[in-house]
Amino acid sequence: xxxxxxYKRVLLKLSGEALAGDDGxxxxxxxxxxxxxxxxxIAELEIQIAIVIGAGNLWRGRIGLxxxxxxxxxxxxxxxxxxxxxxxxxxxxERTGIMTRVQSAIxxxxxxxxxxxxxxxxxxxxxxVVIFGGGTGNPxxxxxxxxxxxxxxxxxxxVIKATKVDGVYDSDPMIxxxxxxxxSLTYIDTLNRRLAVMDSTAISLCMENHMPIMVLxxxxxxxxxxxxxxxxxxTLVSE
Length: 239
Known about the structure:
The structure is a single chain. It is built from 8 helices and 11 strands. It is α/β, with parallel strands linked by helices. The chain has a single domain, classed as Carbamate kinase (3-Layer(aba) Sandwich), CATH 3.40.1160.10. It is globular and about 50 Å long. The two termini are 32 Å apart.
Protein backbone atom coordinates (compact mmCIF):
# COMPACT_ATOMS: atom_id res chain seq x y z
CA UNK A 1 0.00 0.00 0.00
CA UNK A 2 1.34 3.40 -0.93
CA UNK A 3 2.05 5.76 1.92
CA UNK A 4 -1.06 7.94 2.19
CA UNK A 5 -0.07 9.29 5.59
CA UNK A 6 0.50 12.93 6.35
CA TYR A 7 3.54 11.81 8.37
CA LYS A 8 6.55 9.71 7.45
CA ARG A 9 7.89 8.96 10.95
CA VAL A 10 5.92 9.15 14.19
CA LEU A 11 6.61 8.53 17.85
CA LEU A 12 3.73 6.95 19.71
CA LYS A 13 3.67 7.63 23.47
CA LEU A 14 1.66 5.01 25.34
CA SER A 15 0.85 4.73 29.01
CA GLY A 16 1.64 1.52 30.83
CA GLU A 17 -2.09 1.23 31.53
CA ALA A 18 -2.57 0.42 27.82
CA LEU A 19 -1.28 -3.06 28.68
CA ALA A 20 -3.07 -3.41 32.02
CA GLY A 21 -5.99 -5.62 32.91
CA ASP A 22 -9.36 -4.36 34.08
CA ASP A 23 -7.97 -3.48 37.52
CA GLY A 24 -5.38 -1.14 35.96
CA UNK A 25 -2.37 -3.22 36.97
CA UNK A 26 -0.13 -5.88 35.49
CA UNK A 27 0.27 -6.98 31.88
CA UNK A 28 -2.80 -8.51 30.26
CA UNK A 29 -1.84 -10.57 27.15
CA UNK A 30 -5.24 -9.81 25.62
CA UNK A 31 -4.67 -6.05 25.96
CA UNK A 32 -1.18 -6.46 24.48
CA UNK A 33 -2.71 -8.23 21.49
CA UNK A 34 -5.38 -5.54 21.10
CA UNK A 35 -2.70 -2.86 21.23
CA UNK A 36 -0.64 -4.73 18.64
CA UNK A 37 -3.68 -4.79 16.33
CA UNK A 38 -4.03 -0.99 16.61
CA UNK A 39 -0.35 -0.54 15.72
CA UNK A 40 -0.52 -3.05 12.87
CA UNK A 41 -3.40 -1.03 11.39
CA ILE A 42 -1.22 2.07 11.05
CA ALA A 43 1.89 0.09 10.04
CA GLU A 44 -0.03 -0.82 6.88
CA LEU A 45 0.24 2.86 5.90
CA GLU A 46 4.01 2.33 5.60
CA ILE A 47 4.70 4.80 8.39
CA GLN A 48 7.90 4.49 10.40
CA ILE A 49 6.76 3.86 13.98
CA ALA A 50 8.71 4.37 17.19
CA ILE A 51 7.12 3.81 20.61
CA VAL A 52 7.77 4.93 24.17
CA ILE A 53 5.68 3.19 26.82
CA GLY A 54 5.23 4.09 30.48
CA ALA A 55 5.20 1.83 33.52
CA GLY A 56 2.17 2.86 35.57
CA ASN A 57 0.68 -0.63 35.29
CA LEU A 58 3.68 -2.14 37.09
CA TRP A 59 5.15 0.55 39.33
CA ARG A 60 4.13 4.00 40.52
CA GLY A 61 7.10 5.81 41.97
CA ARG A 62 5.01 8.15 44.08
CA ILE A 63 3.88 5.20 46.21
CA GLY A 64 7.51 4.55 47.13
CA LEU A 65 8.17 8.25 47.71
CA UNK A 66 5.26 8.44 50.13
CA UNK A 67 6.98 5.74 52.17
CA UNK A 68 10.30 7.56 52.16
CA UNK A 69 11.95 5.81 49.22
CA UNK A 70 14.85 7.59 47.54
CA UNK A 71 13.59 9.37 44.40
CA UNK A 72 16.38 8.06 42.16
CA UNK A 73 15.73 4.48 43.29
CA UNK A 74 12.01 4.83 42.61
CA UNK A 75 12.71 6.27 39.16
CA UNK A 76 15.17 3.51 38.23
CA UNK A 77 12.57 0.93 39.22
CA UNK A 78 10.11 2.64 36.89
CA UNK A 79 12.65 2.56 34.06
CA UNK A 80 13.13 -1.19 34.51
CA UNK A 81 9.36 -1.66 34.44
CA UNK A 82 9.15 0.13 31.09
CA UNK A 83 11.51 -2.47 29.63
CA UNK A 84 9.17 -5.24 30.81
CA UNK A 85 6.28 -3.49 29.07
CA UNK A 86 8.37 -2.97 25.94
CA UNK A 87 9.18 -6.69 25.79
CA UNK A 88 5.51 -7.64 26.23
CA UNK A 89 4.50 -5.30 23.41
CA UNK A 90 7.36 -6.52 21.20
CA UNK A 91 6.16 -10.11 21.61
CA UNK A 92 2.56 -9.19 20.77
CA UNK A 93 3.67 -7.20 17.69
CA GLU A 94 5.93 -9.94 16.37
CA ARG A 95 3.12 -12.48 16.71
CA THR A 96 1.11 -10.30 14.30
CA GLY A 97 4.00 -10.36 11.83
CA ILE A 98 5.53 -6.95 12.60
CA MET A 99 9.30 -6.99 13.06
CA THR A 100 10.14 -5.13 16.25
CA ARG A 101 13.23 -4.06 18.15
CA VAL A 102 13.49 -2.96 21.78
CA GLN A 103 16.23 -0.50 22.66
CA SER A 104 16.91 0.29 26.30
CA ALA A 105 18.52 3.41 27.71
CA ILE A 106 19.72 1.20 30.58
CA UNK A 107 22.09 -1.40 29.21
CA UNK A 108 20.82 -4.98 29.53
CA UNK A 109 22.28 -6.85 26.57
CA UNK A 110 20.52 -10.14 27.25
CA UNK A 111 17.05 -8.70 26.66
CA UNK A 112 17.36 -5.51 24.60
CA UNK A 113 19.68 -3.57 22.36
CA UNK A 114 21.35 -0.54 23.91
CA UNK A 115 19.85 2.73 22.71
CA UNK A 116 21.91 3.89 19.73
CA UNK A 117 20.33 6.70 17.75
CA UNK A 118 21.71 5.80 14.33
CA UNK A 119 20.82 2.12 14.77
CA UNK A 120 17.28 3.08 15.79
CA UNK A 121 16.88 5.19 12.65
CA UNK A 122 18.22 2.33 10.52
CA UNK A 123 15.66 -0.07 12.02
CA UNK A 124 12.89 2.42 11.23
CA UNK A 125 14.10 2.82 7.66
CA UNK A 126 13.95 -0.98 7.27
CA UNK A 127 10.31 -0.99 8.35
CA UNK A 128 10.78 -2.26 11.89
CA VAL A 129 8.88 -0.85 14.85
CA VAL A 130 11.31 0.40 17.50
CA ILE A 131 10.26 0.48 21.16
CA PHE A 132 12.38 2.66 23.42
CA GLY A 133 12.55 1.31 26.98
CA GLY A 134 14.29 2.59 30.07
CA GLY A 135 13.06 6.17 29.80
CA THR A 136 15.91 8.60 29.23
CA GLY A 137 18.19 6.44 31.38
CA ASN A 138 18.21 9.15 34.05
CA PRO A 139 16.12 9.62 37.20
CA UNK A 140 13.95 12.73 37.60
CA UNK A 141 12.72 12.50 33.98
CA UNK A 142 9.36 11.04 32.99
CA UNK A 143 8.53 8.80 30.05
CA UNK A 144 6.77 11.87 28.57
CA UNK A 145 10.16 13.58 28.48
CA UNK A 146 11.73 10.40 27.07
CA UNK A 147 9.15 10.48 24.28
CA UNK A 148 9.89 14.13 23.47
CA UNK A 149 13.63 13.48 23.54
CA UNK A 150 13.59 10.35 21.38
CA UNK A 151 11.17 11.93 18.88
CA UNK A 152 13.56 14.84 18.47
CA UNK A 153 16.62 12.60 18.20
CA UNK A 154 15.18 10.35 15.49
CA UNK A 155 13.65 13.22 13.51
CA UNK A 156 10.02 12.21 14.00
CA UNK A 157 7.35 14.39 12.41
CA UNK A 158 5.05 14.28 15.45
CA VAL A 159 4.58 12.86 18.94
CA ILE A 160 1.22 11.15 19.35
CA LYS A 161 0.14 10.76 22.95
CA ALA A 162 -2.41 7.97 22.88
CA THR A 163 -4.67 7.97 25.93
CA LYS A 164 -8.16 6.91 27.04
CA VAL A 165 -9.55 10.41 26.29
CA ASP A 166 -10.29 11.88 22.85
CA GLY A 167 -8.21 15.02 23.32
CA VAL A 168 -7.33 17.76 25.80
CA TYR A 169 -10.10 19.35 27.86
CA ASP A 170 -10.25 22.47 30.02
CA SER A 171 -11.30 20.25 32.95
CA ASP A 172 -11.68 16.54 33.64
CA PRO A 173 -14.45 15.28 31.31
CA MET A 174 -14.98 12.27 33.59
CA ILE A 175 -16.03 14.67 36.36
CA UNK A 176 -17.39 17.65 34.46
CA UNK A 177 -19.84 16.76 31.63
CA UNK A 178 -19.60 20.36 30.40
CA UNK A 179 -15.82 20.19 29.92
CA UNK A 180 -14.67 21.78 26.68
CA UNK A 181 -12.35 19.92 24.30
CA UNK A 182 -9.68 21.90 22.48
CA UNK A 183 -9.08 21.16 18.80
CA SER A 184 -5.71 22.91 18.95
CA LEU A 185 -3.46 24.59 21.49
CA THR A 186 -0.14 26.39 21.49
CA TYR A 187 2.69 25.12 23.67
CA ILE A 188 2.53 28.28 25.78
CA ASP A 189 -1.21 27.96 26.36
CA THR A 190 -0.72 24.34 27.40
CA LEU A 191 1.98 25.31 29.89
CA ASN A 192 0.15 28.36 31.24
CA ARG A 193 -3.13 26.50 31.71
CA ARG A 194 -1.30 23.52 33.27
CA LEU A 195 -3.28 21.19 31.05
CA ALA A 196 -2.69 17.47 31.41
CA VAL A 197 -1.02 16.87 28.05
CA MET A 198 2.53 15.97 29.04
CA ASP A 199 4.71 17.24 31.85
CA SER A 200 6.22 20.71 31.50
CA THR A 201 9.72 19.41 30.69
CA ALA A 202 8.39 17.37 27.78
CA ILE A 203 6.25 20.22 26.43
CA SER A 204 9.15 22.67 26.69
CA LEU A 205 11.43 20.27 24.83
CA CYS A 206 8.85 19.88 22.06
CA MET A 207 8.37 23.64 21.91
CA GLU A 208 12.10 24.32 21.59
CA ASN A 209 12.42 21.77 18.80
CA HIS A 210 9.14 22.59 16.97
CA MET A 211 7.80 19.08 17.59
CA PRO A 212 3.98 18.94 17.39
CA ILE A 213 2.05 16.82 19.89
CA MET A 214 -1.26 15.15 19.13
CA VAL A 215 -3.46 13.79 21.92
CA LEU A 216 -6.13 11.25 20.98
CA UNK A 217 -8.05 8.22 22.20
CA UNK A 218 -6.04 5.12 21.40
CA UNK A 219 -9.07 2.84 21.75
CA UNK A 220 -11.52 4.79 19.58
CA UNK A 221 -11.84 2.62 16.46
CA UNK A 222 -9.88 4.09 13.57
CA UNK A 223 -8.93 7.29 15.43
CA UNK A 224 -5.17 6.80 15.19
CA UNK A 225 -5.33 5.88 11.53
CA UNK A 226 -7.55 8.87 10.70
CA UNK A 227 -5.20 11.21 12.55
CA UNK A 228 -2.24 9.97 10.56
CA UNK A 229 -4.17 10.47 7.33
CA UNK A 230 -4.57 14.13 8.28
CA UNK A 231 -8.19 14.09 9.43
CA UNK A 232 -9.13 16.29 12.41
CA UNK A 233 -8.87 14.00 15.42
CA UNK A 234 -8.10 14.76 19.05
CA THR A 235 -6.12 17.86 20.03
CA LEU A 236 -3.03 19.20 18.30
CA VAL A 237 -0.46 21.12 20.34
CA SER A 238 1.91 23.14 18.17
CA GLU A 239 3.14 26.64 17.43
